[in-house]
Amino acid sequence: MKRCFLAAALLLTTAIGALAQQEDADAKYATDLLKPGTEAPEFVVDLSNPKRNIPLSSFRGRYVVLDFWASWCPDCRKDIAAMKQLRDKYAPRGVQFIGISFDTDRDAWLKCIRQNEMRWLQYSELKKWKKETKIDRDYHVNWIPTMYLVAPDGKIDLGTVMIEKLAARLAEVADTLPQADVAGMPQYPGGTEALLSFLKQNLSYPEAARKLGAEGRVVMSFVVEKDGSISSITAPDCTITGLNQAKFDKLTLSEQQELKRECLLQMAREGARVVKAMPAWKPGTLKGEPVRVQYRLPISFRM
Question: How far apart are CA 34 and CA 62, in angstroms?
Fold first, then answer.
């Protein structure tokens, strides 16, 4: 009996020690992270194409996971499988995942992404961490992996170096997320033809796009609530699909860049204005009950 008691006591002590060591990770490495309630510093995911660069603020209205990592970091590689599971579970429900790498070798970075099938938005300054990078200073990243959860209002909800805590927090907010798999998708009153007619009658062509002779496409993301009302309106993707090249070539480089930025911004704002003006939808349903559903609506601007 004494042997059994001693063995059980030893196992309990070992388990408590392992848990304490795990809990100490944040106490040791996360003390300087941005605190909950702090405005998340703005940055732009540079996709090397001014038409498709994505600012963090474009995801307002949604939870955003920021995963600071590097392909050369053993602890980061250990977390990849768990991060993939979180992404597969919560991305369909509107959570945006952004990987922010401190790699300096582009080929090694992209190879790691491909081999591990990290199919979410990835970004790297391709500069030396703590020496040349800016985003690490903005987010106080002194250890990797580091993870933040940004709330729909653009403020920090959680900062941690432990993916277990990120998973636990996502589970806590899961009830506030829209459903992904529903038996009945939301419908605009009157159906698709009525929706297209509403867009045609209410969509105004942005002045900057008119000046540039530009056409474009904006993807609006929003939640159709249980009562059919619209909330959490964002424009996660906005692209210029064509422009008047003769007009464009007459501008200086700085004028071209500024006009493109303004054009994309106005398209996104106009898309948001029109979505906000929509009447209540027929809500989505799951097992016969109305549920919140994330919906994506592409809107084209054609001259």
Answer: 19
